[in-house]
Amino acid sequence: MLAQRTNLFGSSGTAAARAAAKAAADAGKEIIDLTAGEIWSDLAPTIREGAIEAINRGVNRYTDTVGMMELREALARKVSLDTGQIWKAEEIAVTSGAKQALFNAAMVLLNPGDEVIIPAPYWTTFPAQVLIAGGTPVFVDTRSNGYVPRFEDIKAAVTDRTRAIVINTPSNPTGAVYDVQTLIGIAELAINRDLWIVFDECYGDFVHGDHTHHLIVSVVPEVRARTLIVNAFSKSLALTGWRIGYLAGPKEVINAVRALQSHTTSNPNVIAQHAVLAHLQRGDGSYESKLRSQLASARQIGLHVLSSLTRVPVPKAHGGFYFYLDLSDLMRPTSVGGASPTADDVVNSLLSEAGIGAVSGTAFGDPAGLRLSYGIPPEKLETGLVRLVEVLNVWE
Ligand code: PLP
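A: This is the predicted complex of the input protein with pyridoxal-5'-phosphate.
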């Protein structure tokens, strides 16, 4: 009865994992939920004030489809600072979260059958959106290279049908941060083969140790004309529910996005736009620093506990706020039943035996992966990971 299109996608695997953890908690089980793609935190004061001021002024109307001009100008200043280049408001579209920015990008760039290269493990929505837009995802496995694609592998995946490459650095789910050489290689390939780059830097504020987040357009400025930068305040300001993201790219793309968005959602929520504008105008960076140090400390706590893992390598967690475990050594056939367990089995056991919610790598195209979020309160994180280590160290 439904459109054939509905066969192309299921509900997001991460949302399903979150729902399973919530259902167990609602059933009265004590659950430590490590599934969330969001950070536990208070609102930034500037966000609260900006929203309340807009409400008190009685703001209630549509804005320009791709966001208020003042906000687009403020975002253009932000992107200019981030990239070290001059960006204008006409190169920015404000969207309802990064998810809509990515969806818009897929819809305005892809023709039926166009291939899009996506490094795997991947954030689950990338291939789903490509499929919905009529394209074909082509995966490049990064697992044997620390979750950063090898240039040769990306190059080998390019065909006459390739239209775009998705780069997500720092990566969800793996936490990998792309190095400059890899970005240069991909940028030059895109230029030589006339490809688009969709550059998702939603976790760009969270890089750890001596790692640095590099924007591809800063590393290779000539690639800017074929790059769409996707970002949001969902992670960097712990504002997942407020739904403000943006797309930065060539004016023609932004114009097409405006037309598309005018027929889908129109403008993102006006109060949330005012809140983010107030933050961009008045924020002094202290809220961002607080979030960063909260996550850095959670990461240390987590890595300390995970260093007791005996059969699973301790994750690197260079960026974002996820620990990504490689469970390959636990996936050998069991002596009893003979069948190889999958990460789904591990996730189910963790939930039923240890009350831990985690996301299986199958949601990210990796049957041996496991994603754990450390954006939760530290005491819970520590207790949860201690229990998880106990389960994994005796897994059979
Ligand atoms: N891109 C990546 C890599 C993400 O992990 C997420 C959310 O988890 C998004 C985009 C979507 O973010 P938003 O909530 O702003 O739509």
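The chain is about 40% helix and 15% strand. Residues 37, 97-99, 123, 168, 172, 200, 202, 232, 234, 240, 245 surround pyridoxal-5'-phosphate (CB under 6 Å).
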